[in-house]
Automatic annotation (TrEMBL):
GO MF terms, alphabetically ordered: phosphoglycerate dehydrogenase activity
Family statement drawn from the similarity comment of this UniProt entry: Belongs to the D-isomer specific 2-hydroxyacid dehydrogenase family.
SUPFAM superfamilies assigned to the protein according to its UniProt record, in alphabetical order: Formate/glycerate dehydrogenase catalytic domain-like, NAD(P)-binding Rossmann-fold domains
D-isomer specific 2-hydroxyacid dehydrogenase catalytic domain sequence ranges: 40-309
Residue ranges of domain D-isomer specific 2-hydroxyacid dehydrogenase NAD-binding in the record: 133-308
EC number annotated for this UniProt entry: 1.1.1.95
Keywords (A to Z) from UniProt: NAD, Oxidoreductase
Entry superkingdom: Bacteria
Record lineage: Bacteria, Bacillati, Bacillota, Clostridia, Eubacteriales
Annotated protein name in UniProt: D-3-phosphoglycerate dehydrogenase
UniProt organism field: Clostridium algifaecis
Amino acid sequence: MRLLAIGDNFIGKEVMEEGLKELKGYGIEITVREWEHKNLEMLQKDNLLIEQNGPEAVELSEELIWDIEDYDILIVQFTPVSKKLIEKAKNLKLIGVLRGGAENIDCEYAAAKEISVMNTPGRNARAVAEFTIGMILSEIRNIARSHAALKNGEWRKKFPNSGFVPELNGKIVGLVGFGSVGKLVASYLNAFGCKILVYDPFFKGNIDYIEIVDLEYLLKNSDIISIHARLTDDTYHMIGKKEISLMKSTSVIVNTARSGLVDEKSIVEALDEGKISGAAIDVFDVEPIVKNDKILQLDNITITPHMAGSTRDAFINSPKFMRDILARALDKNENLPIVNGINPEF
């Protein structure tokens, strides 16, 4: 059995090889290549194109996939796996993607070809969750704004929320989406003494320190709203103008998930008009942000360049997580993160 793993600027060849090497014990021959970009910015630009337009949006070089028909397993992180590539991969049985989202895989066509697609749920959940807490604190306590002011020689003490700077203890925080990231964020917020509301139609379980509510109730009652849903056709712009109008004038919205979950223009408008207190955003409709974007002129927002999940630990551990998933698949374990409904057949 042969496996082709395609790394990138975040997960290089050596990290990929080290993470997957134990699969050789299953008789798997491993080949590792890299989807090369001049820098991380160029990779992120391609990744955004793929997320917004699908895996056909970026063409791979022939050098990268020239013998794809010889492989049974394909492992990628950001590399697009299009219908064209799948059609060429005559012997492919499984596609593994080293992240939670599978936007870069044509999952529907893979299913039509009886190819299983599996993701790596939670691989950077801790990185995003920790970053989310940092974004919340930075926005409500004006950490980034005061830092920027001091760097410019200003001893700034007045901010848009100066009349109601809060502490987290006792505040109501609404989490939209309660997967791997949402659960970690909730556990951290519980330690701060927050009351936690959760909206997630797919969550089945019972955690004593959260309250499951509908989206309208969450929006109306939360002091802080943090987005952790998966981006699908159904969740696109799930937070739009109507939803923002339900929020308190003193509330803050945080998005470290996907830009498409929130109507960016409506958020900017609400912040500009003072309809909500603030926002903390790590993901944007256009990346990098253009210099004349109105979002850069707002004083009641904390912005970062799509970096929530980018920790060394998250990238290094991803191939190891996939190694363990593949081992379970080869051992015929039923507990597999299959995203397209097709069980792998080896």
